[in-house]
Structures are given as structure tokens and as C-alpha cells.
């Protein structure tokens, strides 16, 4: 009797685990095979159909509604500012409802004047961004150019991802850089559905709407005392960086999937620079020495 009760408890535990773990569906059958089927179903109302498992271990019916579950999130912001692009990202990574890390690198150098942000599945983003980075390096070496155009990098990545549309990839990236040929900053949004959109400002991730609201509502008082909307594209760079950091900080306060550290990258005609690092939960930023990403892009930059 004690053995039966113990096995029933084990079955209940596995049933709960199987609700979220697709690999546990048919394991219940093996753990409970020493019990009579009517004993299990009669004593604890054990229902294999509830978890999408089959009573026959050779059959699989792994239907499970995951529409209400969120496995990852982030807040990434980028916008053009005069002759540069300002990129601001957080560093928290989630594993389901748990925090996986607070120090994840969410920006990848593609070339000396181009970076890409990461939002979505970490593995998907890392693979495809590194893939386009390799493509860009080969292209630059083959044709003897200093750097590909930002639009070309974004378009190639969008075309690659479009080939796998509907395959379950989770990629939402911003390609930010400075075009050497046109002497102007460029910013594009690319996702796993093959979307390719150029713009002046983008916020991507679970905290994107919160970050947009902060940037859209940012205002300053002029000398006459009237309140006028700030122009992120023409304001001094230091103020623009402060606005970007404030947007991510406010998003991190309300979005449970965002947080950790905030890193600010500025891409201009001289290259990619890591200019600031701040706590996502603090209103005051932490001074941080500027580093040129292009000089360390092949080394460990996990501190980002």
C-alpha cells in the first residue's frame, strides 16, 4: 500500500513537470507501469489526456498550449543622433520565468562600423548575427572594401531569415552603423519573419512599448519657460545618451524580463565605442571608460 501511494505521488510530480516539459510526457507511463491503470485513475484522477500524453508509450500526442507562456524578453533602444547612432541595451536573460543571467552581452560587432543588437531567443540571435558577421568579413576581404553598407548587411540578414520563415525562430535585431561611403548613420530593424525596415528610432523587446513611451514623452524647458519636445536626432550627444538610459531604466522597472546593466554603444565615423554602463535599477549612471569595440570584437566582451 505504501509503495502504491509513493508511486502515485511520483506520478503526480511528473504530471506537474510534464505540464511545462515536453520531454516528460511519456515518462509517466514507465514510472507508473507497476500500478494498475484503474488504481491510478481511480485514486488520484490521473488523466493522461490532460497533459497531452498517450497511455501507449509508443504513441505521441504532445499537444500543449504554450500561447500564454513567455520564455524571454529584453529592452533594446537605438536611434540616430546627429552624425552617429546611439544603441542602448539591458543585460538580463530569462529562462522561462527564472532569471538566467544579469550580465548577458546583447550587442555584437559585425564590422568596424556596424553593430547588431539581440532580442528574442539568445541562441537564434547569436547564431544569425555571427553568421552575417562572417559574411560581412568575407565580403569586405573579397572586394577589398573597408566596410559593407549598413543597408546591405541588414538586407542580407533579412533574406537569410526569410528562408526560415515559420520555422519557429525568434530573432529581433537592430542593425546600427555608420556608412563610410555616404558619411551618414544608418539604422535598420530585422526579424525572423524576414522584416526589413529602416528608420530613425527603434525599440525592440518585451519592454519596447515602455521605452517608446519614455522617449516620446521626453521634454525640456526652453529659455522662455515653454515646454517643447526634445529632438533626439539633433540634441547634444550626452543628453541623447541620458534619454536612452532613462528609457531602458524605466522599462526595466515595469518589465520583469528586462534589467541587469545598461550598456550604451555609440557608432560614428571613428568606429564603435562603448561609452557608458549603468545599473538598470538606479537613476544615476555609473561612469565607464570608453572602449572601442572594433579593437576587441574577437576577444571576450562578456562584460557587456
Features:
disordered C terminus; six-stranded antiparallel beta sheet; alpha+beta; 31% helix; 304 residues; 15 strands; single chain
Please give a structural write-up.
There is one protein chain. The chain is α+β, with helices and mostly antiparallel strands and 304 residues long. The chain has helices at 2-18, 27-31, 37-44, 122-143, 150-162, 208-217, 237-254, and strands at residues 76-81, 84-89, 93-95, 98-101, 107-111, 114-117, 172-179, 184-191, 196-198, 201-204, 219-221, 227-229, 261-268, 271-279, 291-292. The radius of gyration is 24 Å and the shape is globular.
Secondary structure: number of strands: 15
What class, by secondary structure content? alpha+beta
Spans of at least 5 consecutive residues whose pLDDT stays below 50 are 18-62, 219-229, 285-304
Gyration radius from CA atoms, angstroms: 24 Å
Biggest sheet, in brief?
6 strands, antiparallel
Mean pLDDT across residues:
76
Order of helices and strands: HHHEEEEEEHHEEEEHEEHEEE
Helix content: 25-40%
Determine the number of helices (DSSP H or I, runs of at least 4 residues).
7
Short summary of the structure?
The chain has helices at residues 2-18, 27-31, 37-44, 122-143, 150-162, 208-217, 237-254, and strands at residues 76-81, 84-89, 93-95, 98-101, 107-111, 114-117, 172-179, 184-191, 196-198, 201-204, 219-221, 227-229, 261-268, 271-279, 291-292. It has 304 residues and is α+β, with helices and mostly antiparallel strands.
Amino acid at each position: 500500500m505504501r509503495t502504491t501511494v509513493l508511486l502515485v505521488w511520483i506520478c503526480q510530480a511528473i504530471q506537474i513537470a510534464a505540464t511545462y516539459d515536453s520531454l516528460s510526457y511519456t515518462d509517466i507511463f514507465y514510472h507508473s507501469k507497476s500500478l494498475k491503470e484503474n488504481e491510478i485513475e481511480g485514486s488520484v484522477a490521473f488523466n493522461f489526456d490532460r497533459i497531452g500524453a498517450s497511455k501507449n508509450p509508443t504513441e505521441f500526442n504532445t499537444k500543449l498550449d504554450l500561447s500564454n507562456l513567455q520564455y524571454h524578453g529584453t529592452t533594446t533602444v537605438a536611434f540616430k543622433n546627429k552624425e552617429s547612432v546611439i544603441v542602448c541595451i539591458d543585460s538580463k536573460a530569462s529562462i522561462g520565468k527564472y532569471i538566467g543571467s544579469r550580465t548577458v552581452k546583447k550587442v555584437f560587432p559585425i564590422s568596424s562600423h556596424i553593430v547588431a543588437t539581440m532580442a528574442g531567443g539568445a541562441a537564434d540571435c547569436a547564431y544569425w548575427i555571427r553568421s552575417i558577421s562572417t559574411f560581412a568579413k568575407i565580403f569586405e576581404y573579397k572586394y577589398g572594401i573597408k566596410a559593407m553598407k549598413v543597408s546591405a548587411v541588414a538586407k542580407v540578414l533579412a533574406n537569410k531569415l526569410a528562408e526560415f520563415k515559420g520555422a519557429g525562430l525568434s530573432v529581433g535585431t537592430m542593425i546600427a552603423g555608420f556608412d563610410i561611403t555616404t558619411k551618414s548613420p544608418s539604422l535598420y530593424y530585422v526579424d525572423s519573419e524576414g522584416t526589413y525596415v529602416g528608420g530613425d528610432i527603434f525599440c525592440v523587446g518585451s519592454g519596447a512599448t515602455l521605452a517608446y513611451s519614455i522617449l516620446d514623452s521626453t521634454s525640456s524647458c526652453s529659455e522662455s519657460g515653454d515646454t517643447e519636445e526634445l529632438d533626439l536626432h539633433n540634441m547634444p550627444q550626452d543628453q541623447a545618451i541620458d534619454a536612452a538610459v532613462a528609457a531602458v531604466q524605466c522599462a526595466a522597472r515595469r518589465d520583469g524580463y528586462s534589467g541587469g546593466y545598461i550598456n550604451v554603444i555609440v557608432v560614428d565615423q571613428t568606429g564603435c565605442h562603448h561609452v557608458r554602463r549603468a545599473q538598470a535599477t538606479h537613476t544615476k549612471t555609473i561612469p565607464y571608460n570608453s572602449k572601442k569595440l572594433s579593437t576587441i570584437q574577437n576577444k571576450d566582451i562578456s562584460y557587456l
